[in-house]
């Protein structure tokens, strides 16, 4: 066994005699030393849940309370399930919210050589390395073949689950808690984040948690509306306002959302002339239909979403500064998936359950390690696509490495570049065109975008 501080602490502890079988297992000791070198805390217990020793001075003393550890282990370790899923503070042995990822393990021994181990890793140090090391230990528990990872336990009572917002990463939880804190108000909210980070899902959650939940929620993609039709689409028009105008005129989306919430997605694509009208609507709380002079009072909460740097657009005078400050009263930044590695297993199993049904129920550990190591330029939308593709390719109940696309082997520095995202998006659209025989409606639904946005992307990529 390597001579590390952790090893010396184990040898010198008051229960050293009871630990001697563990100390003679060189492979296990080497693994524990590597985990400790990562900054992990380790608790060692007997199968009867008696605490023998702990290593991990960086964790609060209360974490290592024997009765709390015993209760947590009893709830998660059974003979049929000797490995409890690595879960970022899902059901921690103590109040470790946002602080650590953890796993309960039962050593592959029996009798005096059997131990239960708790591995705690600070959230700040969580990495795919941890998952890979967990995988190697799991192989010791099942040396005959690859270990499939069951779905981590989900607390269905947690509001984030009810909203379809899944995650335990600190950056995600900050956004989620901000959303809950401000949902009850009426101020404008700006959601910013890369494409595919779940901005519309957050907007819908804000609406559901607000006093406006029983009123309409309307989402408008500003980039999907032809520039000449934006004013009539948003604000409505009067009969005779233009050639082809409907008899009696028509209300716009602001009127349709009266009393509720209006999401203006891709707000950075709104032309300057429409920005001026929007600013007036926000300031006066009335809309004037195209071709009319009469103001119509409205009561609408505005949520905007963007993947662009609006402050830079303000500096370049392509986005109005006064409108920016009107819209950006409450900013919420959604983190990219590469900043949420501990959420990848949760999301992967969520998509597996929702897309695979009862046919595909598990993910091979090596496949999960590849998912966690990838940088995801397309974020959650890309992860969903990869899981759906894997479900279609696998011939068993477990998703394996061979079922994953080769792009997951790209070097890290390549997978987050704009060119990488564009290449992935082009491949995704092309694949869906083959699958759905160029049915634009089904392709747009699979991508989560409008048909007009899909047509723009098809032209852009020359498909």
From TrEMBL:
GO terms for biological process: regulation of DNA-templated transcription. Gene3D superfamilies: 1.10.8.60, Homeodomain-like, P-loop containing nucleotide triphosphate hydrolases. SMART domains: AAA. Keywords: ATP-binding, DNA-binding, Membrane, Nucleotide-binding, Transcription, Transcription regulation, Transmembrane, Transmembrane helix. One of its GO terms (molecular function) is ATP binding. SUPFAM superfamilies: Homeodomain-like, P-loop containing nucleoside triphosphate hydrolases. The chain crosses the membrane at residues 114-134. It comes from the Bacteria. The keyword ATP-binding applies. InterPro entries: AAA+_ATPase (IPR003593), AAA_lid_NorR (IPR058031), Homeodomain-like_sf (IPR009057), HTH_Fis (IPR002197), P-loop_NTPase (IPR027417), Sigma_54_int (IPR002078), Sigma_54_int_dom_ATP-bd_1 (IPR025662), Sigma_54_int_dom_ATP-bd_2 (IPR025943). Pfam families: AAA_lid_14, HTH_8, Sigma54_activat. Residues 165-392 form the Sigma-54 factor interaction domain. This is Sigma-54 factor interaction domain-containing protein. It comes from Edwardsiella piscicida. The lineage of its organism: Bacteria, Pseudomonadati, Pseudomonadota, Gammaproteobacteria, Enterobacterales.
